[in-house]
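Could you join me in thinking about how sequence relates to backbone shape in a protein? Label the sequence line and the structure token line clearly, so we can match residues to local backbone shapes. Once you have written the record down, we can walk along the chain together.
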Amino acid sequence: MTLDKLKPDDDRIQHLYTTVRRKQYYYALGTPPSPPKDTILLVHGFPDLGFGWRYQVPFLMNQGYQVIVPDSLGFGKTDAPKEPRHYSFKSVGDDLMELVRQIVPTGKIILGGHDWGGTLVCRMALWHRESVKAVFAIGIPYTPFSTEYLEPEVIVASGWQPYLGYQVQFRGSEVERKIQGRDGLSLFFSAMFCGTDPYGELGFSLDRGLLFDRLAALKRPTILDKDEFEFYVNEYNRHGMHGALNWYRNKVFNFMEEKSLADSGDFRVEVPTLVIEPTGDGPLDPEAHTGRGGQFSKLTIRQVASTHWALIEAPEEVNSHITEFLEKL
């Protein structure tokens, strides 16, 4: 059976805009046929859009949930400020909570995130404790706050975490300079969505980032159909790469805004939390989430066989794990 998914501009959801904290956000609003059980905010990562949740939105609506799915700051139809300070987790989290409160003025909501979105929603559960009922994160989830600031360049050069080399590349100017216009974005998405060259080689690696010498030979990735691929290219062509890459340039602002919690040690996520780990997503280690200072009070860990793109490569398994988690709340 083919799993239901949204298409670009799908008329089963409302396509809306709002202004929060002087920034315009686009978001999709999905409403179930009967009064909703709960409201879920779904936050995407990089390089993605709210459309990345296309297999989850109709499923959750059919399960009786109202879903709010924005394009995050810097992506798609949402504004893309130039300054990295606007992209700190706290700033974007405050934006998104204000957006939610325009739709659901009171009560607690459920947060779901993928990649950067997973990191963000776990932090929103701390910054907005009175408003969050539960959290689920796919891929990169919560990492503890730090009392010491280290640039990714220093971490990679030390040999401690060489797999952060791609972040060093993304923080610089090379990607933004070389990936421009529809042609450049087509090469970029072919690499990031696991397209391969005639020899089966990828155009991206965690330790180096985009492998520019391979990009021209990459085939269109098989995990996106033609319309989906063109949609990503067109949406990123609105702003170019600068805003999206600012998510990798926000670290010093994150550190400054999170230091008070880091110093106090008060960064344990108390609400029920589900972490779904893709087994093929680089160095992610499910064991880490139970071992780093007891970051979660009520943690459930599940795995799916996929790359970084679990939402579209393993949607049935992801949806099943989310449903199991939500039914126990």
